Amino acid sequence: xxxxxxxxxxxxxxxxxxxxxxxxxxxxxxxxxxxxxxxxxxxxxxxxxxxxxxxxxxxxxxxxxxxxx
Amino acid sequence: xxxxxxxxxxxxxxxxxxxxxxxxxxxxxxxxxxxxxxxxxxxxxxxxxxxxxxxxxxxxxxxxxxxxxxxxxxxxxxxxxxxxxxxxxxxxxxxxxxxxxxxxxxxxxxxxxxxxxxxxxxxxxxxxxxxxxxxxxxxxxxxxxxxxxxxxxxxxxxxxx
Lengths: 69, 161
Hints:
With 69 residues, chain A is an all-alpha fold. Chain A has 2 helices and no strands.
């Protein structure tokens, strides 16, 4: 029953996924839509963290949502 | 068997409207910033450079000085440049152009339909159309190192009869 419930939730969420055209990414290209609003700062912080902890990973992917070439 | 046929039909129809090299350029009903209709067939006999751009696209910003240079260099030789704006908010395009003036035609109405007709897959996308309305060269994105190739293609098309 619980499995069916989770499956139902997934099925309800799926229609929300849609592909957008290259010219419809104006809003996604805005700075506040970026996963990392300060990419250089985050990169440095990640480097420091990696040096201290002798481990890396677990970060979000970098880059904006512009999708420009 | 039936599934394979359906899949094949879907694959075949997916790119049926794509503008490709060697085909006639799709017809676009565009309007320039000062509300003057800018139809591609008006430029028959000229080499047409169609550039799809938007204010939020950083590569488009980089391409503007190059397009202005092209307009200056090849404008008298028979090249016409049309910058098809694809901003969802037209004020964004106006604000962009206030800071980065263009020396070529900019259109702001009918761009989305035109982009669909050309099957634009990236921003910016450029299409070189010859004097007979045939797409001869497609370029996606903008990188400094590729400008010479674009210039060479333009010069070649201008030299054609």
